[in-house]
Amino acid sequence: WGLLDGMGIYHLMIIPALGALLFAPIIIHFARDARGHGVSEVLEAVSVHGGRIPPRVGVVKSVASGLCIGSGGSVGLEGPIAQIGSAIGSYVGQIFTLNEDRIRLLLACGAGAGISATFHAPITGTIFALELILGHVEAGYFSAVVISAVVADTIAQLHKASCFVAPPYTLVSVWELYFYAILGVFAAFGALTFTKVLFKMEELWSKVPVSDYIRPALGGLVLGVIA
Is the keyword Chloroplast in the record (predicted)? Predict the structure, then answer.
């Protein structure tokens, strides 16, 4: 992006749009299943398709997410990595022609491992895979997902230092816990509001009468203006 430095602050408006012009055709031509947030598509695969995700989805999602995030798109990490990890786990199960139950388990292991390695949070990755992806907890599933999450986090820790180090925290007074509880309530309402606004904006944006090739670029341009 050094070629755009001469434009000053205006290059911030252009870069997200350029990134969208690059990843939109890739998704449209190679794997439309790679569209969306990622988690909902994984849930659909588990519920409707027996845990089977086409291998191309993981590849396209990796490339498209890299281009989008790298160009400043605010897509987050959890959705893409959940779908990419799930696609890898599902593909392994399909290679060995396992039954649907085992494919779903490997899919969940991939999703949990992806979340665990990305955020260095094996407990979160495990709960995410069991509660959200599979929707239930069984002894056989639990051990497999835990092992996947811990191994993924261990490997990630070996090859990547933390982006930041959280300062040590000491509880000064037990009264702090009450304020944290109140903060949790406000955070819950904030999360609900954000989710509703997000889906409403997606619904409105999908009605814009432009090509699927151009719509992401317009969104990138709006993002650039806000930035």
Answer: no
Structure tokens at 199: 């889906």
Give the span between the Cα atoms of 76 and 48, in whole angstroms.
26
CB 90 within 8 A of CB 140: no
Cα separation, 179 vs 183, whole angstroms: 6
Quick one: CA torsion of 82, 134, 127, 37, rounded to 10 degrees? 30
3-class DSSP state for residue 28? helix
**Amino acid code (one letter) for 48:** V
Question: What is the C-alpha to C-alpha distance for residues 58 and 87, in angstroms, rounded to an integer?
Answer: 5
Q: Hey, CA dihedral for 129, 41, 34, 200, is it positive or negative?
A: negative
pLDDT tens digit string along 11-66? 777 888 888 899 889 888 888 877 777 888 899 999 999 999 998 998 999 999 88
